[in-house]
């Protein structure tokens, strides 16, 4: 390239960036992310060492569901802007999600932590991402010894995140969750109450509180918490599933059956299954119920982009895993309790 054409190239790049920004707004509003990512991919011939277009391309790939390619593009964004902590945090979130690239996620989270004072406001988010990664790795580990090591690492990372950002309800929530998984129920209760003091209407914190109370056999108190949470989130199926279990203990199977019927009505309205013949075409309500129950057990990760407020979205790690862990605690407490008479 001829040096005297440098100014012309800068003007051309600026013009192209403006056009692609307008295209991003237009296609983004219409949800045409696939088309947007294809258009931005063609723009890469203008994008040598140009962070803005690379980042737009990565975000469009994310929105189009092309997570694997998005991670590769985000790596280039990190190279172009190494001091921006939001980029490795975003990459870590993608890796922990549907890709399940936990080793990659760990590396991205450590990148944020290692940035140190350059991005101190994001350091707590880095430890939060690191703790989530270790917790998921512990779930995948086949050896009990490795599970315990990874759970301890996760606990230390969450404790560090909470100490760096004591006003972040997500840090308190995930610390409580990890303590619950590690069978430290009283300590978990303390931190989940802290999370609720910071974000009183968080569905996942309310759910975790109910599970912890049920692990201590305070079933009626747990059911009251679930009822309170459902007043804010009446169609939250994770809460409704727990309500069914608690109602069968506290109010009998008839009450639990009514809640099950209510859940089926919600599913019916969600899928608009008004025609009974729909059940005979391979997409019955029961099949969809089973599929949605599996979806409820997946992980929803926090939004790492806001260093001050954290995410406003509900977050939880595999609610079924916590329920299983707490059920084991409840069973062990029940078996060790002295029998009367």
UniProtKB/TrEMBL annotation:
It comes from the Eukaryota. Transmembrane segments: none annotated. The keyword Cytoplasm does not apply. The keyword Transport does not apply. Keywords: TPR repeat. Gene3D superfamilies: Tetratricopeptide repeat domain (1.25.40.10). Residues 1-40 form the Tetratricopeptide repeat protein 7 N-terminal domain. TPR repeats lie at residues 51-84. GO terms for cellular component: plasma membrane. SMART domains: TPR. GO terms for biological process: phosphatidylinositol phosphate biosynthetic process; protein localization to plasma membrane. Pfam families: ANAPC3, TTC7_N. This is Tetratricopeptide repeat domain 7B. The lineage of its organism: Eukaryota, Metazoa, Chordata, Craniata, Vertebrata.
């Amino acid at each position: 390239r001829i040096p005297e054409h440098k100014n012309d190239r800068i003007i051309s790049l600026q013009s192209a960036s403006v056009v692609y920004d307008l295209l991003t707004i237009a296609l983004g509003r219409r949800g045409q992310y696939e088309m947007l990512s294809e258009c931005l991919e063609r723009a890469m011939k203008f994008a040598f060492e140009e962070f803005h277009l690379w980042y737009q391309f990565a975000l469009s790939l994310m929105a189009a569901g092309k997570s694997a390619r998005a991670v590769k593009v985000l790596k280039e964004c990190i190279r172009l802007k190494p001091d921006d902590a939001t980029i490795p945090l975003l990459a870590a979130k993608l890796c922990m999600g549907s890709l399940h690239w936990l080793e990659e996620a760990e590396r991205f989270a450590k990148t944020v932590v290692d940035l140190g004072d350059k991005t101190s406001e994001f350091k707590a988010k880095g430890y939060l991402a690191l703790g989530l990664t270790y917790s998921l790795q512990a779930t995948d580990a086949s050896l009990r010894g490795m599970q315990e090591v990874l759970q301890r690492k996760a606990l230390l990372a969450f404790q560090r995140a909470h100490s760096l950002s004591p006003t972040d309800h997500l840090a308190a929530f995930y610390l409580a969750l990890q303590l619950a998984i590690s069978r430290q129920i009283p300590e978990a209760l303390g931190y989940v109450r802290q999370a609720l003091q910071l974000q009183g209407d968080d569905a996942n914190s309310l759910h975790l509180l109910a599970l912890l109370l049920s692990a201590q056999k305070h079933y009626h108190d747990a059911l009251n918490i679930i009822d309170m949470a459902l007043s804010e989130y009446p169609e939250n199926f994770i809460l409704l599933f727990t309500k069914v279990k608690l109602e069968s203990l506290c109010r009998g199977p008839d009450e639990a059956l009514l809640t099950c019927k209510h859940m089926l009505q919600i599913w019916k309205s969600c899928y608009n299954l008004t025609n009974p013949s729909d059940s005979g075409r391979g997409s019955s309500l029961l099949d969809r119920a089973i599929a949605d129950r599996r979806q409820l057990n997946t992980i929803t990760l926090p939004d790492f982009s806001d260093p001050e407020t954290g995410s406003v979205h509900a977050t939880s790690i595999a609610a079924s895993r916590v329920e299983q862990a707490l059920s084991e605690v409840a069973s062990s407490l029940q078996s060790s309790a002295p029998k009367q008479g």
